[in-house]
Amino acid sequence: MVELERSVTMVLEEKLLLGTTVAKDKTEQLREKVEELHKQGIKPKLVMMRVGDKADDLAYQRSALSRMEKVNILSEVQEFPNDVTEEVFLRQLEENNQNDEVHGILIFLPLPKHLDLKKVKECISPDKDIDAISPINIARLMNAEECFVPCTPKAVMELLSYYNIPLQGKHVVVIGRSMVIGKPVSMLLLNENATVTMTHSKTTNLQELTKRADIIVCALGKSKFLTEEYVSPHSIVIDVGINVDETGALTGDADTEQILPIVKAITPVPRGVGSVTTVMLAKQVIESAERGLQQK
């Protein structure tokens, strides 16, 4: 009986698409790229601009700083009080734009309501906008042009590529329509010739759509939303959600424990997409530094 349980556990674990594995391999590759840039006198640098001290922002900041250190990217955190004036914030953003030693700028969102997000998005240099909030980068993404893209959607694509999951001709259902994840990941999938259906919490036949899909990207922001009624044995589930349940435990948008025995594969939370996101942040800082070198 013990051997049987162990065998079942091993089979289930083989279904997990671990982001931690992807992150480890990609981190090594990025460190080598940074070493090459150092040899040419370029030291990639990331500047993070944070207003206030929200717990989510601080958690992501710690994760980003840790990843930058692992790949030997310089990093700086510029902290602002919650009541920072728009003039002060935009002035500092413009200084970062003009600073040749800064290759990537990350602005923690959402900003306080008194700061005009539209002005901030229009002010940030598209060439340093490594989380793609600039309307210029969004337009480039929509036109399938080379550009920076939001790091979490980029992490989804990197994970699919790493595990050799084909996209061409496959039906992908994206649950969620935000500009942070849902819309950009849909465009990235379309650019890889997937057939994409974008859905949301108000979609009436959602279970029918997801059961027929080859791949489900769940980015709704609702803990354990995706249950057994939404999946089938051929489902590959990419769980982008990061939530905290009533017990304080970290959960995804999918009820992994319930659907793992059913689906073909799934990314866990934690150790899934989130593990790859800061790697993509570092990757885009390096790409910015490389572009700067080519322009010299």
From TrEMBL:
Domain of life: Bacteria
Binding site for NADP(+): 176-178, 242
GO cellular component: cytosol
Keywords: Amino-acid biosynthesis, Histidine biosynthesis, Hydrolase, Methionine biosynthesis, Multifunctional enzyme, NADP, One-carbon metabolism, Oxidoreductase, Purine biosynthesis
InterPro entries: Aminoacid_DH-like_N_sf, NAD(P)-bd_dom_sf, THF_DH/CycHdrlase, THF_DH/CycHdrlase_cat_dom, THF_DH/CycHdrlase_NAD-bd_dom
Domain Tetrahydrofolate dehydrogenase/cyclohydrolase catalytic, chain residue ranges per copy: 18-131
Subunit-level organization: Homodimer.
Function description: Catalyzes the oxidation of 5,10-methylenetetrahydrofolate to 5,10-methenyltetrahydrofolate and then the hydrolysis of 5,10-methenyltetrahydrofolate to 10-formyltetrahydrofolate.
Family: Belongs to the tetrahydrofolate dehydrogenase/cyclohydrolase family.
Full protein name: Bifunctional protein FolD
Organism: Filifactor alocis (strain ATCC 35896 / CCUG 47790 / D40 B5) (Fusobacterium alocis)
Higher taxonomy: Bacteria, Bacillati, Bacillota, Clostridia, Peptostreptococcales
